[in-house]
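Check these lines:
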Amino acid sequence: MKRRSFLSKSVKTGLAASVISQFPLFNVISRPLKSEKGLGIALVGLGNYSTNQLAPALQETKNCYLAGIVTGKYDKADSWIEKYSIPDKNVFDYTNFDDISENQDIDAVYIVLPNGLHAEYTIRGAEAGKHVICEKPMANNAADCKKMIDACKKAKKKLGIGYRLHYDPYNLEMMRLGQKEVYGKVTEIDAGFGFVLRNQDAWRMDKQLAGGGPLMDVGIYVLQGCIYTLGMLPESLVARDVTKEPDFYDDIEGTLEWELKFKSDVKVSCRTTYEDNYNYLKAQAEKGAFDIGPAYSYNGLKGNTPEGAMDFGNINQQAAQMDAYALHVLEGKELLVPGEMGWRDMFLIDRIYESAKTGKEVSLKGIPKILHKV
């Protein structure tokens, strides 16, 4: 039987790891592993983000590398093995995922599954003895986030969230200008992120998998942007569901708007949608306005200040994010985006949904107290 078809049949039965370990011939690869160069990461889920962003970024990282993959689509496994020279023993599916505990090449797993599966695979990854990066949003609710944090602490494993913009120079400049009050105190923030989603078969339209609509997808960037520009935590919020086509979006929102209220008198207005296209983060300060737009994209970001345009160039945000996480694990360096930050954001998202449902302002008492200060 051909090597590839044998592997596919083995994976389908959940026996790949045990079978391959008995046949050293299958472990022949075209180049040596880069384990001496850093943290070995396995991508769990090979969808668009893993395929087009994370895997290419892992070819540019300095402190970590692509060590393995976890997928339920066996045709994808073969192409990834060939493209990235991944050893067959480092390929897992969802039935034998827990066997990853026996793999010495893989130090950490990056959970890139639909939102509703984040908690399960983060917890299982930690219990398998692996450090974890979890893509945003951390989970479908704050309660699950706490379980994930507790599981990683119990296993003595590091937990990071895939918040790439904390390493992006344009968003870092928004933090600096706002938090340092370079143009005086910020008096107003206006932020929004949305795109048009009309495919009802997309997993994002399934509330069980997605946890909600655009708030859980791109709205979380808006929420983050307002908080890290101010460097403060809000005390209350009020939200409105302003979906234009509620019948089309069924049990998820199509468009949400909300206001965050802080101790200061700063006015913070936010919006997110699957019914329109926008991508911006704007701040008005006492001595002038500064903004970025597009603000949350992978590249092509642009910004303006009272003194002229921001001009930092663009970096590979995902590579910077994963390299920082690797140094957190390998050298104990501080992580800007730990699990507690993901928990904080889901605490806020839970309350945005609560307010949108009741129409009432809700208190944010008990919010996890974590901030990225510059």
Q: What stands out?
A: The chain has two domains: 3-164, 165-363. The first helix runs from residue 3 to 12. Residues 40 and 104 are 9 Å apart (CA to CA). Confidence is low (pLDDT under 50) at residues 1-34.
